[in-house]
Amino acid sequence: MSNFIEGKRVYLRPFEEEDIITWFDWFNDPEVTLYMNKGVFPNTKQLQEEYFKKLLTSKNDVQLAIVLKENDTLIGAVGIHKIDWIHRNSGISIMIGDKTLWGKGLAEETIAFIVRHAFTKMNLHKVTAGMMAENYGSRKCFEDNGFVLEGMQKEQFFYKDRYVDVYLLGLTRKKWEEDNRRRQKY
Ligand SMILES: CC(C)(COP(=O)(O)OP(=O)(O)OC[C@H]1O[C@@H](n2cnc3c(N)ncnc32)[C@H](O)[C@@H]1OP(=O)(O)O)[C@@H](O)C(=O)NCCC(=O)NCCS
């Protein structure tokens, strides 16, 4: 299997049928789904297989497996979803399913590659991300990639015993290019 996108510590490749066994169970882990709008209904291998099959023909989603380079282990999933080919925007999702690898900068690195893919290969104009206000890690790894807060949905999701706000972040191609130029300058 060739690496679709090659990074420093991770590479991104398409999901394969043999990944389903690892992939589906991340959504049953209460720690992984803590801040996600998931984990209410159990995920099964069959549901994941159906999702996998849908992805094979979808022209509105790019879902990729995140693999650790040092040992070729599948550690997570990153996606460009709900691609709007007219307005040229999409949402980005990320999950590092292997909890032991959190806090090592892998999500930040992965988002950088998927954003570059969205702008330079798919010719999108803008990418967005949304997360529960409590999901500090998610917000930080998007902001570290230049995303800015554009809005907030009050009490959008039910979390534990209360309704919580959702932050809406966005990044235009223009800002991404300016950020890159600035990074190269200094
Ligand atoms: C959110 C998630 C993707 C972050 O992945 P990660 O690989 O741990 O993130 P990174 O290590 O790249 O962290 C990037 C920055 O966020 C910070 N960060 C990460 N997790 C954090 C947390 N729980 N609280 C505060 N800061 C956090 C890191 O310290 C780092 O900051 P720095 O740039 O100042 O060093 C991961 O925790 C995860 O997959 N969670 C479950 C699924 C999920 O919530 N996905 C997002 C749905 S919107």
From TrEMBL:
GO terms for molecular function: acyltransferase activity, transferring groups other than amino-acyl groups. Residues 10-174 form the N-acetyltransferase domain. PROSITE patterns: GNAT. Keywords: Acyltransferase, Transferase. Its EC number is 2.3.1.-. It is an enzyme of class 2 (transferase). Transmembrane segments: none annotated. This is Putative ribosomal N-acetyltransferase YdaF. It comes from Candidatus Scalindua rubra.
